[in-house]
Amino acid sequence: MSAELQPGVPSGPIAGKWTRRRAELALVGPVQKRRHRVVVVGSGLAGASAAASLSELGYETLCLCFQDSPRRAHSVAAQGGINAAKNYQNDGDSVERLFRDTLKGGDFRSREANVYRLAELSNGIVDQAVAQGVPFAREYGGALANRSFGGALVSRTFYSRGQTGQQLLLGAYQAVAKEAARGGLTLLARREMLDLIVVDGRARGVVARNLVSGALETHLADAVVLATGGYANVYHLSTNARGSNATAIWRAYRRGAAFANPCFVQFHPTCLPVSGEHQAKLTLMSESLRNDGRVWVPGQAGDGRRPEDIPEDERDYYLERLYPRYGNLAARDVASRAAKVVCDEGRGVAPGGRAVFLDLRDAVDRVGAGALRERYGNLFEMYERIVGDDPLRTPLRIYPAAHYTMGGLWVDYDLMTTIPGLFAAGEANFSDHGANRLGASALMQTLADGYFIVPPSVGNYLATARLSPVSEATSEVRDAVASAESRIGALVGSRGGLPAAQFHRALGDLLWNHCGLARSEAGLVAALRQIDELRGRFWRDVRVPGSGASFNQELERAGRVADFLELAELMCIDAVARDESAGCHLREEHQTQDGEPRRDDAHFAHVAAWMHTAGGAPPRRLIEPLVFEAAPLEVRSYR
Amino acid sequence: MNIVLRVWRQESPGSGGGFVDHPLSDVDPGWMLLEALDVLNEKLVARDRRPIAFDSDCREGICGACGVVVNGRPHGGMPHATTCELSVGAALASAPRPTNGAGVITLEPFRTGAFPVVCDLVVDRGALDRVIMAGGFVTVRTGSAPEANTIPIPKADADPALDAAACIGCGACVAACPNGSAALFAGAKASHLGRLPQGKPEQGRRALSLVRALDDAGFGACSLHGECEAVCPKDIRTDVIARLNRDALRARIRGR
After folding, report:
1. Does the structure show a pLDDT above 80 at A575?
2. CATH number of A1-264+406-633, picked from 3.50.50.60, 3.40.50.150, 1.10.1740.10, 3.20.20.140
3. Do B142 and A52 touch (CB under 8 A)?
4. What is the pLDDT of residue A2?
5. CB A43 within 8 A of CB A188
6. Where are the domains of chain B?
7. Which of A187, A265, B147, B172 has the fewest Cβ atoms within 10 Å of its own Cβ atom?
8. Which residues 129-158 on chain B approach chain A with CB closer than 8 angstroms?
């Protein structure tokens, strides 16, 4: 293992690790807490829960978000639910089982101790949310209801219709509002982090742009928490919100934070297919529909009949055929790849042939249309508005889309990056999902990080760190501001004539083709050459009207695309270096005869964490070996 | 087809503004309206002109960022839909008859005293956050929650609580109200939390704080026009306003 990566996992049996770590963590005295300032960047589930909890503890907390209100962070769009090992259904669930499902779902490429802690904390999250007034679905008797998600044989998902993320976010947002009202927390909306301030090797604040006035601001702090989400928008078309971006974590990487497993990207199997080149984004249909829907394509290629005209014996329910035990609830990467395979065979459905059916007909017969509307009402409305079909009469047409990034900043067991004092929470870190994330686990991880892990970890750091005084005049602070200024200057100063969106679209096509559902060394090498060339053209030909000194959304967009163009290169470098298949990362050179990923545990049972090197040299690949003691390595199978 | 986007252009909060016609050709009526704006903006950028500023993020009707008055109606008047869920075709349906063969879609910011214009179609809705900060929460610390199933909540309470909690904070209700009132927004929060046992202990205090915050933030008074309900993309009903007023009145009488 590299000396630069110290996971800091507590010793002893897995079930006692977190308890032991909590007992060891150093505490900050109540009076001292008020003297420490913590900046939280991002206000989604991870950021808002961390900011509110840090403020409750007594730290002077600052929370930045690029939207006009923290309530709009992209966590709001999560539909299906949140997992917890409550075993309310008496169907055999437990912390152990949630742990093993999550580890297996991630194809054994995550850190065992982190995953166990996540499962352990899951129950407390649901308790916390209920206490905040999150209106989860209930049985008539008043108890909480559950449903099933992919990769699990138990029913452990808590939900609020198809808007669970929104409701959990409102809970966390209201906790932020409570702390802001009390005076412990300052909220700054419409601020975008443009650089990280590192002094004496420690994170000491951020440079942010006030998106309304255009002014650059420095926010100095004793610790910085990045909760800025994932980078699926690198593909241009994804299920992420338009503004979701990688700039904060990418700037942290450029300042010395290791970036782990950048090539691990989840393609969500149940999204609406691409419909045209002007499309702004792809719409997700909650995976929970796979509870009641059956996925199929016609048995014969080129079958142009309407779905209702295709008789039962001429349909191929391929997930049920290939994975009889999990059926339509196979893990996301498995379901997405299977959809690609049947479409590559020419059996995709019209228009365009890049879609499969998700059919609710049998569920209507079984439980009735009313019960389905109760479960998925707002999803059906959304589908009907966009596509024009009633999903209860005509099967939905779905296809995979870039959705979630398991990769992110490398963090130790305390969620601290390789830069002391810089923490990463939620999708921004790499921690818990390995090479594939199970449904309803993202919300769980963001809130485990924000409510329960970041607050004591930050305290432990502050109690033990020796911090030198920092001011606006410190040279590293001035350097960070100057570097943000010069990037803005380069963008508004470019004399080209093309909008940033054009480069973003080209980058997205390139990545989708070469670093998407399937990857090969030849394709990735070609992509690396093309990305380099595209980046050159971007800086030569981009046009950003206006200046940096005012409200300028085109400048925001161009800055984000510039960072995506760098990140995309690291993703492809990582995908080449990981010469095996695992979870979402299917290297065509390494698959079984059935097209399943073939892992190479002898050589790749590790986390790859990349360190930026100055002067244009290639990044350095560091390795954190993964050890599996509580759940021994096995071949993942959903058959 | 060819269309004209008649857009309110205003460079900054202090500057004056006015409508500018932006023609756009080869538009498919199936495009989303905001995608048409994206396309127009790319053309403007290529000609080194300032693109039209507008807020939008999720593009699926849940984040509440988008909010444009389309042909005189906040979110364009399609039932239960936000601006980002509106197609060009649907926007044209409510537009005046085409002139010179091109339909004209008029786009304005949400106009109300409490939402100053930031730039073009972007407004500052920080007043809504200030209302929530006044009391739109349950005072519970991380870590002090009881086991989730300890308090059963009848479905008959949980479902209407979620109906009210579905508010996305877009501000269309304020933009539609002749008084510029945010009573529907505040009422939704009072109803969401007041329906649940977890929100009961602070019910009266919350109602009084919310009502006071509405005044402080510069929103007008509610005189039950009902325009808010008609434009709400999440179908929040005016009964939440009655509940807020009742809670506030009861708290005043009881002195807490």
Report:
1. yes
2. 3.50.50.60
3. yes
4. 65
5. no
6. 3-109, 125-254
7. B147
8. 129, 132-149, 152-155, 158
User: Which of A54, A35, A36 lies closest to A46 in space, CA to CA?
Assistant: A54
Is the CB of residue A10 less than 8 Å away from at least one CB of chain B? no
Name the fold adopted by B125-254: Fumarate Reductase Iron-sulfur Protein; Chain B, domain 2 (1.10.1060)
Q: Which helix (H) or strand (E) holds A150?
A: none
For residue A286, pLDDT over 90 is answered with no
Residue A276 has pLDDT above 90, yes or no: no
User: Predicted confidence band at A1 (pLDDT cuts at 50, 70, 90)?
Assistant: low
Its pTM stands at 0.97
Burial B78-102 (b: 16+ CB within 10 A, else e): beebbbbbbbbbbbbebbeeeeeeb
> Read out DSSP for A361-427?
HHHHHHH-HHHHHHHHHHHHHHHHHHH---TTTS-EEEEEEEEEES-EE---TTSB-SSTTEEE-GG
Residue contact A175–B126, C-beta within 8 A: no
Backbone angles phi, psi at A453, to 5 degrees: -105, -50
Sorted by where each begins, the domain ranges of chain A are 1-264+406-633, 269-402
Which residues 280-339 on chain A approach chain B with CB closer than 8 angstroms? 280-281, 283-284
- pLDDT for position A552: 98
Confidence of residue B95 (pLDDT cuts 50, 70, 90): confident
* Nearest Cα residue in chain A from B124: A68
Q: What is the pLDDT of residue B256?
A: 62
The CATH number of the structural domain formed by B3-109 is 3.10.20.30
Counting one residue from chain A and one from chain B, the pairs whose CB atoms sit within 8 A come to 215
Q: How much is the ipTM here?
A: 0.98
At A404-429, the pLDDT tens digits run: 999 999 999 999 999 999 999 999 99
Distance from CA of A306 to the nearest CA of B (A): 22
CATH class as words, domain A269-402: alpha beta
